[in-house]
Amino acid sequence: MRTVGYPPMNRIKSRWDAMLVVVGLAGLLGCQGFSKSSQSPAPGQLTPAPTSISFGNVLVGNTSPQTETLKNTGGADLTVTAATVTGTGFSYAGLSLPLILAPNQAWTFSVSFASTTAGASSGNLSLTVSGSTTLVHIALSGTGVTPATLTANPTSLTFTNVQVGQSSTQTESVTNTGGSNAQISQVAASGTGFSVSGITTPVTLTPGQSTSFSVTFTPQSAGNFSGSVSVTSDASNPNLNVPLTGSAVAATQSTLGVSNPISVGSVVDGLSGTQTGSLTATGGNVLVSSVSLGGTNPTEFSISGLSFPVTVTTSQPVSFTVTFTPGATGAASATASFASNASNSPTVATVTGTGTPAPVHTVQLSWVASATADVTSYNVYRAVFATNSCGSYSTIGSTSNTITTYTDNVVTDGTTYCYAATAVDPNGESAYSNIVQAPIPPP
Length: 443
Fold this sequence. Notes:
Layout: H1 15-33, E1 46-49, E2 52-59, E3 63-72, E4 78-86, E5 90-93, E6 99-101, E7 106-114, E8 119-129, E9 136-145, E10 150-153, E11 157-163, E12 168-176, E13 182-190, E14 194-197, E15 203-205, E16 210-217, E17 223-233, E18 239-249, E19 255-258, E20 262-268, E21 273-282, E22 286-294, E23 301-304, E24 310-312, E25 318-324, E26 330-340, E27 347-356, E28 363-366, E29 377-386, E30 389-390, E31 394-400, E32 405-408, E33 416-425, E34 428-429, E35 436-439
Parallel strand pairs: 2-9, 11-18, 20-27
Antiparallel strand pairs: 1-3, 3-7, 4-6, 4-8, 5-7, 8-9, 10-12, 12-16, 13-15, 13-17, 14-16, 17-18, 19-21, 21-25, 22-24, 22-26, 23-25, 26-27, 28-32, 29-30, 29-31, 29-33, 33-34, 33-35
Protein backbone atom coordinates (compact mmCIF):
# COMPACT_ATOMS: atom_id res chain seq x y z
CA MET A 1 0.00 0.00 0.00
CA ARG A 2 1.40 3.32 -1.08
CA THR A 3 2.03 6.16 1.39
CA VAL A 4 -0.29 9.17 1.18
CA GLY A 5 1.47 12.46 1.68
CA TYR A 6 -0.79 14.20 4.16
CA PRO A 7 0.49 16.72 6.68
CA PRO A 8 1.06 15.40 10.18
CA MET A 9 -1.92 15.57 12.53
CA ASN A 10 -0.26 18.19 14.67
CA ARG A 11 -0.30 20.56 11.72
CA ILE A 12 -4.13 20.58 11.39
CA LYS A 13 -5.13 24.12 12.16
CA SER A 14 -8.85 23.79 12.62
CA ARG A 15 -11.90 21.54 12.74
CA TRP A 16 -12.58 22.19 9.08
CA ASP A 17 -9.07 21.16 8.08
CA ALA A 18 -9.52 17.86 9.93
CA MET A 19 -12.77 17.15 8.11
CA LEU A 20 -11.16 17.81 4.76
CA VAL A 21 -8.37 15.39 5.57
CA VAL A 22 -10.82 12.69 6.59
CA VAL A 23 -12.89 13.19 3.45
CA GLY A 24 -9.85 13.06 1.29
CA LEU A 25 -8.64 9.91 2.97
CA ALA A 26 -11.99 8.19 2.57
CA GLY A 27 -12.01 9.02 -1.13
CA LEU A 28 -8.57 7.59 -1.56
CA LEU A 29 -9.45 4.47 0.38
CA GLY A 30 -12.60 4.06 -1.75
CA CYS A 31 -10.59 4.26 -4.91
CA GLN A 32 -8.09 1.70 -3.64
CA GLY A 33 -10.53 -0.79 -2.02
CA PHE A 34 -13.30 -1.09 -4.74
CA SER A 35 -13.38 -1.38 -8.52
CA LYS A 36 -16.34 -1.13 -10.90
CA SER A 37 -17.52 -4.67 -11.99
CA SER A 38 -18.35 -5.51 -15.68
CA GLN A 39 -20.91 -8.31 -16.76
CA SER A 40 -20.65 -10.24 -20.09
CA PRO A 41 -23.90 -10.50 -22.17
CA ALA A 42 -25.80 -13.84 -22.16
CA PRO A 43 -24.73 -16.14 -25.01
CA GLY A 44 -26.95 -16.70 -28.03
CA GLN A 45 -29.77 -19.26 -27.69
CA LEU A 46 -31.44 -20.85 -30.75
CA THR A 47 -35.13 -21.52 -30.13
CA PRO A 48 -37.27 -23.27 -32.82
CA ALA A 49 -41.03 -22.75 -33.11
CA PRO A 50 -42.64 -25.18 -33.30
CA THR A 51 -40.31 -27.68 -31.64
CA SER A 52 -41.84 -30.53 -33.68
CA ILE A 53 -43.82 -30.71 -36.92
CA SER A 54 -46.57 -33.23 -37.69
CA PHE A 55 -47.77 -33.26 -41.29
CA GLY A 56 -50.63 -35.68 -40.60
CA ASN A 57 -52.00 -37.67 -43.55
CA VAL A 58 -50.59 -36.77 -46.94
CA LEU A 59 -51.72 -38.42 -50.16
CA VAL A 60 -49.04 -40.50 -51.84
CA GLY A 61 -47.47 -38.35 -54.56
CA ASN A 62 -48.35 -35.07 -52.85
CA THR A 63 -46.19 -32.64 -50.86
CA SER A 64 -47.31 -30.84 -47.71
CA PRO A 65 -45.29 -27.75 -46.57
CA GLN A 66 -45.29 -26.14 -43.12
CA THR A 67 -43.57 -23.07 -41.66
CA GLU A 68 -40.73 -23.22 -39.13
CA THR A 69 -39.20 -20.23 -37.30
CA LEU A 70 -35.76 -19.99 -35.70
CA LYS A 71 -35.24 -17.23 -33.12
CA ASN A 72 -32.21 -16.10 -31.13
CA THR A 73 -33.57 -15.78 -27.59
CA GLY A 74 -30.09 -15.17 -26.08
CA GLY A 75 -28.06 -11.98 -25.55
CA ALA A 76 -25.35 -12.39 -28.18
CA ASP A 77 -25.17 -13.12 -31.88
CA LEU A 78 -25.26 -16.76 -32.95
CA THR A 79 -24.55 -18.52 -36.22
CA VAL A 80 -26.39 -21.57 -37.59
CA THR A 81 -23.73 -23.31 -39.63
CA ALA A 82 -25.45 -26.52 -40.79
CA ALA A 83 -28.86 -28.18 -41.14
CA THR A 84 -29.41 -31.92 -41.65
CA VAL A 85 -32.71 -33.67 -42.45
CA THR A 86 -33.32 -37.36 -41.73
CA GLY A 87 -36.39 -39.44 -42.57
CA THR A 88 -37.91 -40.40 -45.92
CA GLY A 89 -39.71 -37.58 -47.71
CA PHE A 90 -38.69 -34.67 -45.45
CA SER A 91 -36.89 -31.56 -46.74
CA TYR A 92 -36.48 -27.83 -46.05
CA ALA A 93 -36.27 -24.69 -48.20
CA GLY A 94 -35.56 -21.02 -47.62
CA LEU A 95 -32.81 -21.52 -45.04
CA SER A 96 -29.52 -19.98 -46.28
CA LEU A 97 -26.48 -21.09 -44.32
CA PRO A 98 -24.56 -19.87 -42.51
CA LEU A 99 -27.38 -17.94 -40.85
CA ILE A 100 -26.38 -15.18 -38.39
CA LEU A 101 -29.06 -14.13 -35.91
CA ALA A 102 -28.71 -11.12 -33.64
CA PRO A 103 -30.46 -11.17 -30.23
CA ASN A 104 -34.27 -11.41 -30.68
CA GLN A 105 -33.85 -11.82 -34.45
CA ALA A 106 -35.89 -14.60 -36.14
CA TRP A 107 -35.79 -16.40 -39.46
CA THR A 108 -38.72 -18.25 -41.05
CA PHE A 109 -38.40 -20.99 -43.65
CA SER A 110 -40.35 -23.98 -45.04
CA VAL A 111 -40.22 -27.67 -44.08
CA SER A 112 -42.02 -30.17 -46.37
CA PHE A 113 -43.12 -33.80 -46.38
CA ALA A 114 -43.37 -35.47 -49.80
CA SER A 115 -45.28 -38.74 -49.44
CA THR A 116 -43.96 -41.46 -51.75
CA THR A 117 -45.38 -44.61 -50.14
CA ALA A 118 -48.25 -45.47 -47.82
CA GLY A 119 -47.35 -45.63 -44.16
CA ALA A 120 -45.94 -43.61 -41.28
CA SER A 121 -42.63 -41.78 -41.60
CA SER A 122 -40.54 -39.93 -39.01
CA GLY A 123 -37.32 -37.98 -38.93
CA ASN A 124 -35.50 -34.91 -37.60
CA LEU A 125 -34.28 -31.53 -38.76
CA SER A 126 -30.99 -31.10 -36.87
CA LEU A 127 -29.34 -27.64 -36.64
CA THR A 128 -25.71 -26.95 -35.76
CA VAL A 129 -24.91 -23.71 -33.90
CA SER A 130 -21.37 -22.36 -34.00
CA GLY A 131 -19.57 -22.78 -30.70
CA SER A 132 -22.08 -25.33 -29.35
CA THR A 133 -21.56 -29.08 -29.18
CA THR A 134 -25.30 -29.75 -28.82
CA LEU A 135 -27.53 -30.00 -31.88
CA VAL A 136 -30.98 -28.44 -31.94
CA HIS A 137 -33.49 -31.11 -33.08
CA ILE A 138 -36.92 -30.53 -34.62
CA ALA A 139 -38.91 -33.80 -34.72
CA LEU A 140 -40.72 -34.50 -38.01
CA SER A 141 -43.58 -36.96 -38.64
CA GLY A 142 -46.11 -37.68 -41.37
CA THR A 143 -48.16 -40.50 -42.83
CA GLY A 144 -48.49 -41.32 -46.49
CA VAL A 145 -51.98 -42.45 -47.44
CA THR A 146 -53.33 -43.80 -50.67
CA PRO A 147 -56.14 -41.85 -52.32
CA ALA A 148 -59.74 -42.87 -51.75
CA THR A 149 -60.98 -45.53 -54.17
CA LEU A 150 -64.55 -46.78 -54.42
CA THR A 151 -65.34 -50.41 -55.20
CA ALA A 152 -68.80 -51.79 -56.03
CA ASN A 153 -70.09 -55.14 -54.80
CA PRO A 154 -71.45 -56.78 -56.84
CA THR A 155 -69.77 -55.19 -59.84
CA SER A 156 -72.98 -55.58 -61.89
CA LEU A 157 -76.64 -56.43 -61.31
CA THR A 158 -78.90 -58.65 -63.41
CA PHE A 159 -82.69 -58.85 -63.09
CA THR A 160 -84.15 -61.92 -64.80
CA ASN A 161 -87.69 -62.56 -66.05
CA VAL A 162 -89.41 -59.80 -64.12
CA GLN A 163 -93.08 -59.66 -64.97
CA VAL A 164 -94.28 -56.46 -66.60
CA GLY A 165 -95.75 -54.17 -63.97
CA GLN A 166 -93.97 -56.01 -61.13
CA SER A 167 -90.76 -54.95 -59.34
CA SER A 168 -87.59 -56.75 -58.41
CA THR A 169 -85.08 -55.23 -55.96
CA GLN A 170 -81.45 -56.04 -55.24
CA THR A 171 -78.87 -54.55 -52.87
CA GLU A 172 -75.69 -52.82 -54.02
CA SER A 173 -72.75 -51.90 -51.75
CA VAL A 174 -69.95 -49.39 -52.27
CA THR A 175 -66.74 -49.64 -50.21
CA ASN A 176 -63.87 -47.18 -49.82
CA THR A 177 -60.81 -49.37 -50.36
CA GLY A 178 -58.37 -46.44 -50.31
CA GLY A 179 -56.47 -44.81 -47.47
CA SER A 180 -58.29 -41.48 -47.19
CA ASN A 181 -61.90 -40.34 -46.86
CA ALA A 182 -64.21 -40.24 -49.87
CA GLN A 183 -67.38 -38.20 -50.18
CA ILE A 184 -70.16 -39.52 -52.41
CA SER A 185 -72.07 -36.58 -53.80
CA GLN A 186 -74.60 -38.38 -56.01
CA VAL A 187 -75.99 -41.85 -56.75
CA ALA A 188 -78.27 -42.12 -59.77
CA ALA A 189 -79.68 -44.84 -62.04
CA SER A 190 -80.03 -44.65 -65.79
CA GLY A 191 -81.89 -46.95 -68.15
CA THR A 192 -85.57 -47.71 -68.61
CA GLY A 193 -87.20 -49.23 -65.55
CA PHE A 194 -84.23 -48.87 -63.18
CA SER A 195 -84.24 -46.77 -59.98
CA VAL A 196 -82.19 -46.27 -56.81
CA SER A 197 -83.42 -45.87 -53.23
CA GLY A 198 -82.18 -46.15 -49.67
CA ILE A 199 -79.32 -43.64 -49.79
CA THR A 200 -79.16 -39.92 -49.07
CA THR A 201 -76.16 -37.94 -50.32
CA PRO A 202 -73.69 -36.60 -49.48
CA VAL A 203 -72.19 -39.67 -47.79
CA THR A 204 -68.63 -39.72 -46.40
CA LEU A 205 -66.83 -43.06 -46.32
CA THR A 206 -63.74 -43.47 -44.18
CA PRO A 207 -61.08 -46.00 -45.29
CA GLY A 208 -62.66 -49.46 -45.26
CA GLN A 209 -66.20 -48.17 -44.68
CA SER A 210 -69.16 -49.26 -46.85
CA THR A 211 -72.61 -47.99 -47.68
CA SER A 212 -75.52 -49.87 -49.25
CA PHE A 213 -78.56 -48.93 -51.29
CA SER A 214 -81.33 -50.63 -53.25
CA VAL A 215 -81.62 -50.93 -57.01
CA THR A 216 -85.08 -51.74 -58.39
CA PHE A 217 -86.16 -52.88 -61.85
CA THR A 218 -89.80 -52.18 -62.72
CA PRO A 219 -90.39 -52.93 -66.42
CA GLN A 220 -93.41 -51.52 -68.17
CA SER A 221 -93.04 -53.68 -71.28
CA ALA A 222 -91.55 -57.04 -72.21
CA GLY A 223 -87.98 -57.21 -73.49
CA ASN A 224 -84.37 -56.80 -72.49
CA PHE A 225 -83.14 -53.59 -70.87
CA SER A 226 -79.80 -52.15 -69.80
CA GLY A 227 -78.65 -49.24 -67.70
CA SER A 228 -76.23 -48.36 -64.96
CA VAL A 229 -75.88 -46.90 -61.50
CA SER A 230 -73.49 -43.93 -61.43
CA VAL A 231 -71.72 -43.13 -58.15
CA THR A 232 -70.17 -39.65 -58.23
CA SER A 233 -67.53 -38.81 -55.61
CA ASP A 234 -64.22 -37.08 -54.94
CA ALA A 235 -62.37 -40.44 -54.92
CA SER A 236 -59.62 -41.33 -57.35
CA ASN A 237 -62.33 -42.92 -59.53
CA PRO A 238 -64.88 -40.08 -59.36
CA ASN A 239 -67.41 -41.75 -61.66
CA LEU A 240 -67.98 -45.36 -60.59
CA ASN A 241 -70.49 -47.19 -62.81
CA VAL A 242 -72.36 -50.40 -61.99
CA PRO A 243 -73.81 -51.97 -65.17
CA LEU A 244 -77.46 -53.05 -64.98
CA THR A 245 -79.34 -55.54 -67.16
CA GLY A 246 -82.90 -56.71 -66.91
CA SER A 247 -85.26 -58.96 -68.80
CA ALA A 248 -89.02 -58.49 -68.60
CA VAL A 249 -91.71 -60.99 -69.49
CA ALA A 250 -95.32 -60.33 -70.31
CA ALA A 251 -97.81 -60.65 -67.52
CA THR A 252 -99.23 -64.16 -67.28
CA GLN A 253 -101.97 -65.79 -65.27
CA SER A 254 -99.46 -67.88 -63.37
CA THR A 255 -100.46 -68.49 -59.80
CA LEU A 256 -98.56 -69.59 -56.72
CA GLY A 257 -99.92 -72.30 -54.49
CA VAL A 258 -98.86 -73.04 -50.94
CA SER A 259 -99.85 -75.93 -48.68
CA ASN A 260 -102.47 -74.56 -46.32
CA PRO A 261 -102.90 -74.86 -43.43
CA ILE A 262 -99.58 -76.09 -42.10
CA SER A 263 -99.96 -77.65 -38.66
CA VAL A 264 -96.89 -78.39 -36.57
CA GLY A 265 -99.01 -80.04 -33.87
CA SER A 266 -98.30 -80.20 -30.16
CA VAL A 267 -94.88 -79.10 -28.93
CA VAL A 268 -93.66 -78.94 -25.35
CA ASP A 269 -93.19 -75.36 -24.17
CA GLY A 270 -89.63 -74.19 -24.78
CA LEU A 271 -88.89 -76.92 -27.33
CA SER A 272 -89.29 -76.80 -31.12
CA GLY A 273 -91.27 -78.81 -33.61
CA THR A 274 -91.20 -78.70 -37.42
CA GLN A 275 -93.49 -79.36 -40.37
CA THR A 276 -92.84 -79.27 -44.09
CA GLY A 277 -94.72 -77.05 -46.51
CA SER A 278 -94.48 -76.68 -50.29
CA LEU A 279 -94.89 -74.07 -53.03
CA THR A 280 -96.37 -74.93 -56.42
CA ALA A 281 -96.86 -72.97 -59.65
CA THR A 282 -99.60 -73.22 -62.25
CA GLY A 283 -99.94 -71.46 -65.58
CA GLY A 284 -96.23 -70.58 -65.72
CA ASN A 285 -93.13 -70.32 -63.59
CA VAL A 286 -93.35 -68.08 -60.53
CA LEU A 287 -90.51 -66.05 -59.02
CA VAL A 288 -90.96 -65.86 -55.24
CA SER A 289 -89.06 -62.90 -53.77
CA SER A 290 -89.76 -63.07 -50.02
CA VAL A 291 -91.89 -64.42 -47.17
CA SER A 292 -93.11 -62.59 -44.07
CA LEU A 293 -94.89 -63.78 -40.94
CA GLY A 294 -97.84 -62.00 -39.35
CA GLY A 295 -101.02 -62.82 -37.52
CA THR A 296 -101.51 -63.66 -33.87
CA ASN A 297 -98.24 -65.32 -32.80
CA PRO A 298 -95.65 -64.58 -35.53
CA THR A 299 -92.66 -64.69 -33.17
CA GLU A 300 -93.30 -68.34 -32.29
CA PHE A 301 -92.91 -69.48 -35.93
CA SER A 302 -90.12 -69.31 -38.46
CA ILE A 303 -89.71 -70.43 -42.08
CA SER A 304 -86.45 -71.82 -43.44
CA GLY A 305 -85.16 -73.79 -46.40
CA LEU A 306 -85.76 -71.07 -49.03
CA SER A 307 -83.07 -68.90 -50.64
CA PHE A 308 -84.72 -65.86 -52.17
CA PRO A 309 -85.41 -65.13 -54.91
CA VAL A 310 -86.54 -68.67 -55.71
CA THR A 311 -88.19 -69.86 -58.93
CA VAL A 312 -91.06 -72.32 -58.65
CA THR A 313 -91.67 -74.14 -61.91
CA THR A 314 -94.86 -75.81 -63.01
CA SER A 315 -93.10 -79.18 -62.87
CA GLN A 316 -91.08 -78.87 -59.68
CA PRO A 317 -92.58 -77.80 -56.33
CA VAL A 318 -90.32 -76.15 -53.79
CA SER A 319 -90.44 -77.30 -50.16
CA PHE A 320 -89.75 -75.33 -47.02
CA THR A 321 -89.77 -75.90 -43.26
CA VAL A 322 -92.03 -74.31 -40.65
CA THR A 323 -90.59 -74.34 -37.12
CA PHE A 324 -92.82 -73.81 -34.08
CA THR A 325 -91.27 -72.87 -30.72
CA PRO A 326 -94.11 -72.21 -28.27
CA GLY A 327 -93.55 -69.58 -25.63
CA ALA A 328 -96.61 -70.54 -23.63
CA THR A 329 -99.15 -73.31 -23.26
CA GLY A 330 -102.05 -73.20 -25.69
CA ALA A 331 -102.89 -72.84 -29.36
CA ALA A 332 -100.82 -70.48 -31.53
CA SER A 333 -101.12 -69.41 -35.15
CA ALA A 334 -99.55 -67.09 -37.71
CA THR A 335 -99.87 -66.22 -41.38
CA ALA A 336 -97.07 -66.73 -43.89
CA SER A 337 -97.28 -64.34 -46.86
CA PHE A 338 -95.22 -65.22 -49.95
CA ALA A 339 -94.50 -62.29 -52.31
CA SER A 340 -94.00 -63.23 -55.97
CA ASN A 341 -94.70 -62.21 -59.54
CA ALA A 342 -97.76 -64.47 -59.61
CA SER A 343 -101.18 -63.02 -60.26
CA ASN A 344 -102.29 -63.97 -56.73
CA SER A 345 -99.36 -62.34 -54.91
CA PRO A 346 -99.09 -62.30 -51.96
CA THR A 347 -100.02 -65.94 -51.40
CA VAL A 348 -100.96 -66.62 -47.78
CA ALA A 349 -100.85 -69.80 -45.69
CA THR A 350 -101.87 -70.32 -42.08
CA VAL A 351 -99.40 -72.03 -39.76
CA THR A 352 -100.56 -73.47 -36.44
CA GLY A 353 -99.24 -75.27 -33.38
CA THR A 354 -100.13 -75.98 -29.78
CA GLY A 355 -97.85 -75.43 -26.82
CA THR A 356 -98.12 -78.09 -24.14
CA PRO A 357 -96.64 -78.18 -20.65
CA ALA A 358 -93.73 -80.48 -20.03
CA PRO A 359 -95.00 -83.89 -18.79
CA VAL A 360 -94.60 -84.74 -15.13
CA HIS A 361 -93.19 -88.27 -14.74
CA THR A 362 -93.68 -90.58 -11.75
CA VAL A 363 -92.63 -94.15 -10.99
CA GLN A 364 -95.22 -96.61 -9.61
CA LEU A 365 -93.67 -99.40 -7.53
CA SER A 366 -95.32 -102.56 -6.09
CA TRP A 367 -94.05 -105.70 -4.42
CA VAL A 368 -95.28 -108.99 -2.95
CA ALA A 369 -95.97 -108.92 0.77
CA SER A 370 -93.46 -110.67 2.99
CA ALA A 371 -94.45 -114.11 4.28
CA THR A 372 -93.06 -113.24 7.73
CA ALA A 373 -95.98 -112.77 10.12
CA ASP A 374 -94.51 -110.00 12.28
CA VAL A 375 -93.46 -107.58 9.50
CA THR A 376 -94.15 -104.03 10.69
CA SER A 377 -93.28 -101.96 7.60
CA TYR A 378 -91.50 -101.77 4.25
CA ASN A 379 -88.68 -99.40 3.17
CA VAL A 380 -88.14 -98.24 -0.45
CA TYR A 381 -84.64 -97.53 -1.74
CA ARG A 382 -83.48 -95.74 -4.92
CA ALA A 383 -80.16 -95.31 -6.78
CA VAL A 384 -79.20 -93.65 -10.06
CA PHE A 385 -78.17 -96.00 -12.83
CA ALA A 386 -74.90 -94.78 -14.32
CA THR A 387 -73.19 -96.42 -17.31
CA ASN A 388 -73.40 -100.13 -16.43
CA SER A 389 -74.39 -100.29 -12.77
CA CYS A 390 -76.56 -98.80 -10.07
CA GLY A 391 -75.02 -96.23 -7.77
CA SER A 392 -75.42 -95.86 -4.03
CA TYR A 393 -78.90 -96.48 -2.65
CA SER A 394 -80.76 -94.14 -0.33
CA THR A 395 -84.14 -94.41 1.38
CA ILE A 396 -86.89 -92.46 -0.39
CA GLY A 397 -89.87 -93.63 1.68
CA SER A 398 -91.60 -96.33 3.71
CA THR A 399 -95.05 -97.92 4.04
CA SER A 400 -96.95 -99.82 6.66
CA ASN A 401 -97.02 -103.60 6.61
CA THR A 402 -100.41 -103.55 4.88
CA ILE A 403 -99.31 -101.41 1.89
CA THR A 404 -97.15 -102.93 -0.85
CA THR A 405 -97.10 -100.03 -3.32
CA TYR A 406 -95.14 -96.74 -3.50
CA THR A 407 -95.13 -93.78 -5.93
CA ASP A 408 -91.89 -91.86 -6.58
CA ASN A 409 -93.00 -88.34 -7.57
CA VAL A 410 -89.56 -86.71 -7.62
CA VAL A 411 -87.71 -87.87 -10.70
CA THR A 412 -85.55 -86.12 -13.29
CA ASP A 413 -86.26 -86.36 -17.02
CA GLY A 414 -83.70 -88.39 -18.92
CA THR A 415 -82.48 -90.29 -15.84
CA THR A 416 -82.65 -94.06 -15.19
CA TYR A 417 -83.27 -95.19 -11.60
CA CYS A 418 -82.76 -98.47 -9.73
CA TYR A 419 -85.32 -99.44 -7.04
CA ALA A 420 -85.36 -102.05 -4.22
CA ALA A 421 -87.60 -102.74 -1.22
CA THR A 422 -86.90 -104.22 2.22
CA ALA A 423 -89.14 -105.67 4.95
CA VAL A 424 -88.80 -104.52 8.57
CA ASP A 425 -89.74 -106.63 11.65
CA PRO A 426 -88.84 -106.34 15.37
CA ASN A 427 -85.57 -108.14 14.69
CA GLY A 428 -84.39 -105.70 12.00
CA GLU A 429 -84.46 -105.14 8.24
CA SER A 430 -84.27 -107.72 5.47
CA ALA A 431 -81.89 -107.61 2.50
CA TYR A 432 -82.86 -105.80 -0.70
CA SER A 433 -85.54 -107.34 -2.83
CA ASN A 434 -84.81 -107.88 -6.51
CA ILE A 435 -83.66 -104.68 -8.31
CA VAL A 436 -85.87 -103.04 -10.93
CA GLN A 437 -84.91 -100.20 -13.29
CA ALA A 438 -87.13 -97.31 -14.41
CA PRO A 439 -85.89 -95.07 -17.27
CA ILE A 440 -87.44 -91.58 -17.23
CA PRO A 441 -88.08 -90.16 -20.73
CA PRO A 442 -85.95 -87.15 -21.74
CA PRO A 443 -87.65 -83.74 -22.02
